[in-house]
Specification:
By secondary structure, the chain is mostly beta strands. It has 4 domains: 130 residues, no CATH class; 162 residues, no CATH class; 134 residues, no CATH class; 144 residues, no CATH class. 7% of the residues lie in helices and 40% in strands. The chain has 6 helices and 69 strands. It is globular. It starts with a strand and ends with a helix. The C terminus is likely disordered.
Length: 660
Amino acid sequence: MSGATVSNVFFSNSGGYPRVNVSAGGVLTSSYIREGYFTVFSGGKSISNDIESNTAIVMSGGSSVEDRLFNINRPVNGFWVSSGGTIISPVVGSGASLGAYPGSIVGGQPSVTGGLVVFNGATVGNGEIPDSLVFAPNATVVTGNWSAVLSDGKTVYQSGTVTLTGPIRISGGNLTVTSGAVASGVYLQYVPLQWPRVDIQAGGTLVSSYVQNGGVFVSAGGLVSASTLDSDSGIVYSGGSAISNTYNNTAFDNSNVRVLSGGVMSSPFITTGGIVQVNQGTVVNPTVNGNGYLGITSGQMITCFLRGTLITTSLGDIPVEEIKEGDLVTTYDSMGRVTGVQRVIWIHSSHVEVPLFDDRSASYPVRIMRSAFSEGCPARDMWVTDEHCFVFKGRLVPVRMLVNQTTIAYDKRLSRYDYFHIKLEKHSIIQAEHVLTESFLDSNNLENGGEFCKSFVPPVPALPLGVERCFVEPIYRELEGRGLGLTGHSPASLNPSIEDAGLYLETDDGRRIKPLRRKGNWHVFMVPADLRNLHLVSRVFKPSEAIGPFLDDQRLLGVLVQDIVIYDSLQTTEIDIHITQSDLPGWDVPEKGKHRWTQGRANLPINHIPTETEFMLCIEVISGGPYPLGFGTSFHSFLQQGAPMMPPGQIADQQLRAAG
């Protein structure tokens, strides 16, 4: 709404999550928003509203006055005030969380009756941040290493002989959440050179908490939910779950958050500076806002159709958004012959917001032009998420591997869109816009919110997946040639690239150390004696972009490091922490052999080196690149590239189709 004043409206989740946007000149007052998405854009105002269990954001130039934030019987996603945004006299009720980021303004008299409040560099009133508002009221401030354990039916926090009940704030320490424990309302605070770490063991849960400038590691059977990970690295391991968390500024510290094979991330909110990399894992219902980034590396991004896509049913072609549970969808074999019908047992929709960034973001939809595959296939232009698969030669091929920038391309006009996925009685081949494609394959029981149960049996895919280069590249070349005939022009040439990795070291306070010299594969740095925690920074590239989308490797990589050696006046020391520590921030997953890829900014701690003088650090780089120049000279500049967000609201379907 823009230029209007709306009051006394009830927005609720009744079959779909409500989305309320207040644009420039708009005012929402005395209303109730439950279980949805609420955004106040520049020039918009929110006054005296009740906001329950929402993801809510006050953008730069927007304001919130006397809004009441609370949640009942479920974790809250959070209310966030961006830099330049203003919130006045908020009321933070039980179960709610409020975060105000650097450059935001908090005025009036904030009231905290429960929940979590974090003012991370915001200007509060006269510039002083009241101690009572830094965290939940009555939080106990502690240091050192703690464990959350289940004792007599309740969760307590133990360190040595000390036992505390929550809430607690751990300053510069670590937390282990053990089986059966539910750690709620915990604030892990960064202090210089002491990065907090949270390990969530099988059966442990971290909920409604805030972790600053550290790492969160979720083991099989562990869960992190409704929490904010600010400048954090972390890993969701196989069998681990991360549900309804907010990720921001992960790129500007040590690393990103990774979801490994078998791990599940549901409903993440990835905002400014946040990076989530899915390595063979699963992500469902993501929201990417600001300069956030979601990368998929052969993982499972839930495959979906965008609004307006026609699905063939027993009653004819029906827009996907009009299909309901119980409807009968026509099914086919790999040759396009009708095999029968399958009943729709679950249909779900969600909303994605992405910046005008670049094609690296897996959250942009892919537009497939009419007749891109063959004459009349598809029958009209259609849009899908980039992990959606289509049938070629008896196998399912993700459309991301067929992007040719002409007839099949990421549509960067769509920074906001709705998507839908359809689950049938069994995974089936269906028809969308007269093209053979797949229904939703629920390989992680996501219909039940990602909650795993012993009785869950993974479904059988309708056809095998085809992602090998030898299988996909001939299909890609054929469609690329067809695109030339349809459009009359060749695909846009690849971005100019460079072989130089632009390698340098960076200290915790931002100082840069350039190589003293380079000899063959070795890069030599002179490091002052007082430095012990370094970061190896370089340009970044994706193999699938450097070689072609038909290569199923979407990792964001820096350089391949083999040996690391330190020379000082007394001794020579070989460093192998990048090989031996699997969860070292900023490094890709370990490989066979004595080498490992960085992800553009790799942590290189050398605290154990006993030297009191300047020393020589030698790093052997055995591979890397080519690096696209279009994305800046380093990992940092890659993250800082981007363009302003599109105005609120997505482009209407008829406008897209008219654009051809």
